[in-house]
């Protein structure tokens, strides 16, 4: 599902809001209900007032009761009365028994009090005869809900503030946790810790922030790879330049001393050409490795390109057999004839270089439904299996595994001697949308017979 973080936050906020309003409503009603009853002490006091009035009426008469009521009204500063509930119908009518049973003048002290009425209610304490009632308007000191406004302010302001603060904190932790991890990783990466990654710390999540972390990790992986490769490339280039520079110094010494000036000048030209090719190939490799360009602007015939490359290779290696199995035509679109031609030429010449004299190198081109397959096989000694991927690294040599005693001595072949040929070829093939894979070929006894390069190119 897209926008998981958005929907998660919406659900979290929505449920949190509903729960907040429910909690406020429930607490408000519960608190108001609990505050709507007269305190037990005051309830008992009201019942005692009624009981005392009943005792005075029975034992001392109405005059004593009148004095007690007058004193009680003055003490409580409220209205007090004693009434009878005789209901006398007239005009030939009668009263329902149920109406007579539930008829009352006031409410019991145990009943709930409406806190929002301005006037205090009249409380009733019935006498034993059930027809006489002690009535008293609830004294203000006994009225419940004195802290109602304070409690309402707490419930409607303080409680939402606390709950919303807690909700905001949880949301902040949920969103800022990954962002802080990303900030820390960015700072560490800027300090040179190229192996720092964010995704492992967010293994329990799967939302937009996780995708952001994945994007950062991909960027960090690509950037760290470029930095490491550039450092390695510069170190290897500086190492490779030392030999021709030393030879140039020696040739200059010979010229200054007048010793074989013609050979010294030839050596200078040779070393200058070698350094120029090395610099050009290194810059081309660095451009392909850093920019990852897409070279797909040409349409051409792959069979024709391979024929031209193979003809040139046969001329340079007359003592080898170069066999080609190619279709009559192999049109290819959205590619680069220059980049692909240089890559295949490097691979074929590399195969011829490591194949013994009178040996054979084969080139096979086949087309499947959606790609071309170019297979170049040689009869050299192969490559150790653990080095089959390393041969595509710049300045990597496998001289111990594949000797090149048959290599021509012309400086036009010098580039391969630096270990840049296959590295360049792989980057160029990748730039046209293809892939290259190296494997060893074996005979029936399992002995290595040579190296096979397979190139897959989109049609």
TrEMBL record:
EC numbers = 2.7.13.3
Q: Which residue ranges run through the membrane?
A: 6-27, 151-172
Q: Which keywords describe this protein according to UniProt?
A: Kinase, Membrane, Phosphoprotein, Transferase, Transmembrane, Transmembrane helix, Two-component regulatory system
- Location of the Histidine kinase domain: 236-459
Which enzyme class, named as a word? transferase
Which compartment or compartments is the protein found in? Membrane
**Protein name as catalogued:** histidine kinase
